[in-house]
Amino acid sequence: MAAGGLPSSATLLLIIILVAAVAVAPLASAVRPVSDAHRSTAAELFAASPDGSFGDLETTYEAVRTFQILGVEKDKGLIGKACKFAAEKLASSSSSSSSPAKDLFHAVRISGVLKCSVDSGVYDDVATRLKAVIKDTNSLLELYYSVGGLLSVKEQGRNVVLPDADSTFHAIKALSQSDGRWRYDTNSAESSTFAAAVVKNDIVKLFDTIKSYDDGTFYFDEKHVDATEYKGPITTSASVVRGVTSFGDVASGKLNIPGEKVLGLAKFFLGIGLPGSAKDCFNQIEAFVPLILSLPSKVFSLTSKDQLKVEVTTVFGSAAPPLRVNLVQVLGSGSKVITTETKELQFDHDNNIHYLDIAPLKIDVGKYSLVFEISLQEPEHETVYATGGRNTETVFVTGLIKVDKAETGISDNDAGTVESVQKIDLQKDASISLSANHLQKLRLSFQLSTPLGNTFKPHQVFLKLKHESKVEHLFVVPGSARQFKIDFLGLVEKFYYLSGRYDLELSVGDAAMENSFLRALGHLELDLPEAPEKAPKPPAQAVDPFSKFGPKKEISHIFRAPEKRPPKELSFAFSGLTLIPFVGFLIGLMRLGVNLKNFPSLPAPSAFASLFHAGIGAVLLLYVLFWIKLDLFTTLKYLSFLGVFLVFVGHRALSYLSSTSSKQKTA
Amino acid sequence: MPKATSDAKLLIQSLGKAYAATPTNLKIIDLYVVFAVATALIQVVYMGIVGSFPFNSFLSGVLSCIGTAVLAVCLRIQVNKDNKEFKDLPPERAFADFVLCNLVLHLVIMNFLG
Amino acid sequence: MAEPESSTAAAGGSRLRNAFGGVLCAFTLLLIGVLAFSIRLFSVIKYESVIHEFDPYFNFRVTQFLSKNGIYEFWNWFDDRTWYPLGRVIGGTVYPGLTLTAGTIWWLLNSLNIPLSVETVCVFTAPIFSANASWATYLLTKEAKGTGAGLMAAAILAMVPSYISRSVAGSYDNEAVAIFALIFTFYLYVKTLNTGSLFYATLNALSYFYMVCSWGGYTFIINLIPIHVLLCIVTGRYSSRLYIAYAPLVILGTLLAALVPVVGFNAVMTSEHFASFLVFIILHVVALVYYIKGLLTPRLFKVAMTLVITVGLTYASKYIPIIASVSEHQPPTWPSYFMDINVLAFLIPAGIISCFLPLSDASSFVVLYLVTAVYFSGVMVRLMLVLAPAACILSGIALSEAFDVLTRSVKYQLSKLFDDSPAASGDSSAESSSASTTSTNSAKNETRSEKTEAPKEKPSKKNRKKEKEVAESVPVKPKKEKKLLVLPMEASVLGILLLIVLGGFYVVHCVWAAAEAYSAPSIVLTSRSRDGLHVFDDFREAYAWLSHNTDVDDKVASWWDYGYQTTAMANRTVIVDNNTWNNTHIATVGTAMSSPEKAAWEIFNSLDVKYVLVVFGGLVGYPSDDINKFLWMVRIGGGVFPHIKEPDYLRDGNYRVDAQGTPTMLNCLMYKLCYYRFVETDGKGFDRVRGYEIGKKHFKLTHFEEVFTTHHWMVRIYKLKPQKNRVRGKLKKLKSGSKASSTNAAGRKKNPWQ
């Protein structure tokens, strides 16, 4: 559990374990070294504003530090502007911000990163101010910023002495809480762990508060106290890691941190991939510099005598320092140990690759876990890089599988007596011919062996029987069976009672098998009894065998069969027939002597009368239009207009008529 | 039976004579009624031949003929001078009612015709 | 010259009186309309303007759809939020009259910029149309008997409890509009019969169309009118007006009925309409017979008749129509008659007699209407509603006749007292004397009315009506006056007083019925206790919860009673609702409710159900909850799915949920959902409706989880627990590597940064 016994250099401590975590990360969540993608993202995220300040001081510092770590090239102009910005802040003696220490802290760090040239007098002034802050303040943040500022000043070559360090430490301790966290704890994980440098065992307690995601990554998170101040898991975790790092700078002695938690932290950071926000990017980069071990190819073929190749690079993709890689263990499936002797891989300078011949290892085909160990050749690199303990990688070893002793036959139901056995050569398509009825069994047996001579259990073995009507049946042959039997008696219904000629095909395959095959074996004449009435019908086969899983034929739904319609001639004939009574009506009218004598002769009434008839005609025309294309409410609307008109006109016409006729009557 | 047939012939003759005495305008209306009923009969025959699909069209066709025949009969009743109950009603008013009802009937028919 | 002068003066005076009478009549009608409207507003005053019951919610939802989407969408609407997964064709299975009426009113008001909401329009549609119905009653009775009877009948109909029960404000159901359409159609028929005008015949057909749109009871009209026509023919009252009244109605009416999708071709194919066709044919035969009779001599006519009859009888015997049998509803009890029509029950026989003196087409129609309505209401209690207008008309006639006789006696006696000159000496003098005494009598009547006017304006209205009626009847009655009965003064005054008291009782009963018996919205319940009025608004609480806390597409399963309300108020898809058209679907829900948890979960899951809703009254004592309806769930479910056997749930023939309950009962889903955590309320689990402690008190739900229980525990909503992802024990043989990612330890979060 504890990663004890390691040097107390904090960077080394953390990074070793983190790299170990990196190497153990499962293949599924691939972690990658920093790539150009990271760099361009960083450049985009930290887009400078015209005056080169990147916004406020904190953002500026993050930007430049990120660029520094990633190796992003910036133009000189930006550097100059940033320097000037920082210098301004340093020089301003009366800071208007609420937290002068914080500003100074960031400004000093910026100039440190960019290696700006700042007057020494300015730094002395800064140092004085920071010391003043330390003496007066009660806030942990202020303390952190001041001490951190002093440290950066010291790094840049100035001589800074912290007077009365003890009292400072006591002040810090006084602000501690019992659970390893600290009061005033917005974004103070860093400061808290820094302060915990005073009290060592608080760090362990802090690690107890670590949280986890389900895929094994660990992270720190703050309680969601204040939404505006909430920084998020990435920031928090990064702060903690930074804090532990700086603790390691200051303290001596061992650190007992649970290894798996550190592993999880590493996975978390590396698994993030390309972070979204500027802060996340910065946080991700600043944390550590591990080394990564990767295999360019994970499949080795025994046949072609491949070599095992291993590549070691840093997280950022740059070359690793000189080191040695040892193959420590080979584990088979089920953690069975194959070899335990350590083999050193040889280094190819040209391609920057470590390689090893695996043939002498006598590894058979299959899936294996290889355990590697990296050791740095130069001891001072150990403070900068971390190699981790053991890295495990999964590889496949493939080879040619020999198939022999293949034979097939038909046997009767009562176990055993084989009627006919035919040998098959599975190197090429065979064409044996068998015949059986439903009372018999088909037997198939073969042997598979690896290049080293062991029995091989393939992943897939299928036997396919295909009827001439293209109905197929697949049978899975159990991997460990040497013999395979198909009992037709129980399969009569499954075969849909289809007798006839069945084509046989055998297919054997595995990931470790380089010569997986699909062979036609020949055909089988099968005699099955007659299908009873209610037997299920075989499913309709796809028209095109290659489109078996493609779209099926389109089904046209008929919800209701359309009614039978009479022939057109009959309908037309009857339509004509209906007109006959009308003709008869007209003839009858003429016979009766119908005339228009009563039509009014005076202009006004005759106009009304003709309008009346026209109105009626218009209404009938509207009805015809309604039948053809209008809808009910439009018709009703027009009808109301026409109706009003008609009522008016008709009233006038008819009243005139009635008055004339009553005059006739009285006269 | 000879008596029945001779009775029937006498019946028909007297009917024909009595009918000829009706005024012309009533005869026009009667002719119209006969025309409408004949059309309805032809439609029924057609339905008998080809079946009743679509039923709504058949209904609307037949009922329009029967309906207009009924309305014509109502008009005839109202216009008939022998009818004591309606002597106050001017025939023009009866005709106007007739036209109105026919228009409503035919609107409904057109909606139902489909 | 004195006589002509007095006659012209009298004529002028009578015209003035006529005019005054007309105005008074109109004003009275207006007041009757207001009365009809306001007596139905008790529920709005006591509770709020909310839609009642269950069926009105469906109508309301349909109206909402209509107002939002327009009529063409409504006509073709297929509703997929009910009877999931079957859906329901609304356009073809609903009587659209009510919805279209309310929709038109809403549209009209909105186009006039009066922004009433659809709900308000729906709530108040019924009172408005009851006012219309009383006016229609006035018109109908006027055609039958006269204005006085008309006003009387209208006033009675405005208040009759049977009609109030189906048309209070908030009861947005078909009958609210249909009764108006019924009465109006009858009025137009009688009017056509009386006038013989084709115009009124067309209007009659259109009104019949409105009735067909509104209610399934339109078959009553299309059977009553043919019976009346037949009656007229048989009693020798055939006339050409009868032909004009009936024949166009059949043709046009059938066509219009076929236009309504619900009826469709049933208009010509079902036995309910055959009576009309048969009578149509009979009428034509009779008309033809009369016509020929006019043409031929009698002897020949007899010959023709014998010829025809021998031929015709052979056909007629084969095609006698079958009157459709009546449904399975319960017949009413005597007390329900008294509750619903009260005093009218005694006045009806008097009205019948009055109709026969003299008998006209219209009055025979009214009597026939009453007789058939009594028969049908005796078979099915819902048709009491159809009896109500007939009862009101006849009671109105009876009362007005009674008042007529009594006031005339009073007037005559008073005239004998005050008048010195002999009263019986010719028409005009009698007229003038009665005219002069009328004015004094009117003054006397008014004083008397003021005395008897306990602040009820109805009796005084009646008095004024009587006085106006007397004024009207004066020009008509002078000849008859001699023949009529004249009662002694005291008897007639006592009679008038007693009749007024009778009317008073009627009014009191009607108002009480409207206020107490028929105004409960049933969606909100109240109870009075020591500390005031408790309101139980649990149903709406539950529906509001559903509509705010579930997805729009979630399906809710409950017993069919609550289907309409759930779709209308909670706006969620339901499995079964009050339409109950698919028995198998209802049986599926019933089976699920009667099965143990796992089986019920399977059934509900196959129907895509997410939430289950049950109604439980055990905490507050609400008696019509799902446990009391449970026996129907078992019976209906068992009727379709034989594995549900009713004896499994019965102990000694009873459904029990206490410790004596059968294990099947105590394990079924309905029991569990109703009584889950019930023991927490009082520690003992005492069910107030059933009156004992429940059997199984402490249990957990394995396949459902409780998501909401209303304030008084009346509605409880549960959610189906999702299926477990991993099936135990089956997949151990597969390689563990592939399983590593799926078997998450409980409580671990997914890494969002990956």
Q: How would you explain this protein's 3D organization?
A:
Chain C: Residues 445-471 have a biased composition (Basic and acidic residues). Chain C: One of its GO terms (molecular function) is metal ion binding. Chain C: Residues 420-474, 726-754 are annotated as: Disordered. Chain C: Keywords: Endoplasmic reticulum, Glycoprotein, Glycosyltransferase, Magnesium, Manganese, Membrane, Metal-binding, Transferase, Transmembrane, Transmembrane helix. Chain C: Pathway: Protein modification; protein glycosylation. The complex is a heterotrimer of chains A (667), B (114) and C (754). With 667 residues, chain A is an alpha+beta fold. Chain A has five domains: 33-92 and 99-174, no CATH class; 176-288, no CATH class; 291-398, Sandwich (Immunoglobulin-like), CATH 2.60.40; 402-538, Immunoglobulin-like (Sandwich), CATH 2.60.40; 594-666. Chain A is built from 17 helices and 21 strands. Chain A starts with 9 loop residues before the first helix and ends with a helix. Chain B has one domain (24-113). Chain B is 82% helix and 0% strand. Chain B has four helices and no strands. In chain B, helix 2 runs antiparallel to helix 3 and helix 3 (55-79) packs antiparallel against helix 4. With 754 residues, chain C is α+β, with helices and mostly antiparallel strands. Chain C has a domain at 534-720: Rossmann fold. Chain C contains 32 helices and 13 strands. In chain C, the strands form five sheets. Chain C has a five-stranded mixed beta sheet with strand order 6-5-7-13-12, with helices on both faces. A two-stranded antiparallel ribbon of chain C has the order 1-2. The A-C interface holds A 28-29, 212-215, 217, 233-234, 268, 271-273, 631, 633 and C 71-72, 741, 744-745, 748-754.
